[in-house]
Amino acid sequence: MKLSIRLKVLALVLGVILLVVLVTSLISFTSVSGETKKTVVEKMSYECAEKIKTVDRMMFERLVDIEMLSSPQNHEMSSSEHTLGEKMDYLRALERNVKSYASISIYDADGIRIGDTRGVDIGLDESSKPFVIEALNGNVYYSPEPAMSQSLGIEVIYFSAPLRDENGTITGVVATRMPITKITEVLGAKVEGQQVEILNAENELIFATNPQEHAGEKDYPVEVSKTLREGKEFIGPYEGEDYVIVGANETGFLDYKGSNWLLIEHMPQDVAFATVAELQTRFLLIALVLIIIALPVSLLVSNYFTTPILKLSAATEEVEKGNYTARVDIRTNDEMEQLGNEFNSTIERLEKIDAEHKQLEKAKTEFMSITSHELRSPMTPMKAQLQMLMEGYFGELDKKQKESLDIVLRNTDRLDHIVLDLLEISRIEAARLKFNFIETSLNPYIERLVSEMDGFMPEKKIEIALKAEKLPVMSVDPDRVMQVLRNLLNNAKKFSNESSKIQVAAELTPERDEIQFSVKDSGVGIPLDQQKRVFEPFFQADNTLSRKFGGTGLGLAICKGIVEAQNGKIWFESKPGKGATFWFTLPLKPTTEIKPITLLFSRKAEVEQKVQEIFLEFLGPLGNKEFERIRSRAMDYNAMAKYVAELEKQGVLAKGQAEKMKAGLARVLGNNP
What we know:
By secondary structure, the protein is an alpha+beta fold. The protein has 20 helices and 18 strands.
C-alpha cells in the first residue's frame, strides 16, 4: 500500500516538476531573450547617442576655433600691425596644432581669397559663397552639410567668421575647411557588421563608414527615417536583409546648435542578436539538466520543500523592505541549497548595486561641482578685459560709456556669483550651503535689482512698481536675498502679459522682527491642480509659456531652500488667469546654524513608500500585490483616483473608505482630490 502511494506521489511530483521546468524554461527564455534584444537595442542606441555627441563636440571645438580667430581680442588676426604673411604663419601654426583642417583661408572685404595655408587658388573670387556672405554680414557660419571644395578636391565642412580690426570694423573673412573624413576618426573603429551613417535634415546621406556609399546618392525610406527621428528603433527588413537600425538626433553642444543631423547605426539581426541564439542553446541544456535532476527530487516529500521555501520567503520580505543584509541558511545538499546560495549571491549583488547607486549620487554632486568650475573658467578673462576698459587702458571713456560698462561689469560679477552658487549647490546634500553675511540695509540692493530687471524683456513693456519702506541695517547676505527676489521677478515677467504691471514690496512685519517681501503680477496664474507642486524640484507647469521660456525647474525649489535655511518662509497665492503673488520673509536676526536644503533631489522612493502604506491600510493583505500591479502603469493622482473609483464600483471599498483613500493619495501625490 505504501509503495502504491509512493508511486502516485512520485508520478504526481515528477509530472508537476516536468511541467514547471518546461513552462518556466519557455517563459524564462521568452523573457530573457526579449530583455536581451532590448538590451542590445538600448546599447546600440546609447552608443549612437554618444557618437553624435562626439561629433557635435568636435563641431563645437571647430566653432570655438573660428570664433577665436574672429575675436577683436586676438591681436594676431585683428591688429593692423601684423602683415598678411604673419597672419598666415599664425594660421599655419594653428592648423598644425589642431590637426583638424584641410586648409585655412583669408578673404578680403570683396570675397577674394588673399591667403591660404596651402597656397591654393589665391585670387579666387568666392564672394557668392554662403560662408563668405554670412561672414561679411558679421555672422559666424558653419555649413549644415559637407560641400565639395574646388580647391582641395575633397568634401569639407566650412566654418567662417568676419575678420575685424581693433575698432571692430569688418575687414575680411577667415574660413576653415574640415575634411568630412575627420568624422570617421572621432567615431572610432567599426564593430564587424556595423555601419554608421549620418543624414542631413532632408534625409540625404552625407557620411557613411562604408566607403561604397557616397553622399547625396542615397535617401533613406521615409518610414525608416521618421521612426528613427522619433527616437524609436527600426527592426525589420531593409535592403533585402533583416536589420536592427537605431538613430540619434543631433542635439548640439553648447554654442553649436547643430544642423538637424541624424546619426544612424545599423547591424544585421543575426549579428546583433547573436547572444539570443546562444541563450536558446543554454536554456535547452538547463531545461534538460533540470528534468534529469527532477527524477531523484520527486522522491522527496512535500515537507522537504516547506522549510527552505519559508526561509526564502522571509528573506525576500526583508529585501523588499530594503534590508540587503538578509541571507538564507539552507543545508539540504541539493538544488534547494543551490537556490539558497544563488539567492544569497543575488542579494549580495543587489547590495553592491545599492552601494553603487549611492556612489552615483556622490558622482552626480561631483559632476555638478566640476561642471560649475568649467563654467567659471571663462569668467576671469572676461572680467579682466572689462576692468581694463573701465580703467581706460584702451582709451578714455565718457560718462555714458562708463555707466554702460559698469552695468556689464556688475552683471559679469553677478554671473560669476551664480556660477559660484552652482558650486555650492553640489554641497547642498551635505548641508554645507554658504552665506556671506554683512552689516547693511537691503534698500539699495532692491532698488538696483528692480532697475536691472526693467531692462529684462523690454519688448513686453512691463512696468515694475517698487514700494519699499526704509529697512534697518542688519546682518544679511544680500546676494542670497537678491537671488530669491530676482528669480521671483524673472518668473513674474515671463508669465505676465504685455503692458502689464508688476508690484514689488518690502516692509517690516507688524511684529518688527522680520522683513516681508512680495512680488505680485497679473499674468496667467498657476493651475489649481499644479499649485501644490510649485516648489518641487524640476517641476514646470505644463503650458505654452513654460515651454516657450524653458528653464530647469529648480528656481523656486532653490528659493525655498535659501529662505527656509535662514528660518524664513515662502508662499504664494494664485488664481488661474488672474496672476500670482509670491511672499517670503527674512528674520532680522540671522540664524547661527544654516539649515540644509534637502529638496533638490528626487523623493520618488519616499512617495512610493507612502502610497504603498495607504494601499495596505485600506486593502489589507491585497495591498502589496495591488500596489505593485498599478505602480507599473502610473503613479499620478488621476490614475490612482480612477483605480479607487473602480474598487468602489466593484464593492471592494465602501464609499466612505474610497473617499478617505483618495484624500490620502492626494496628500502624498500633491494633487487636488
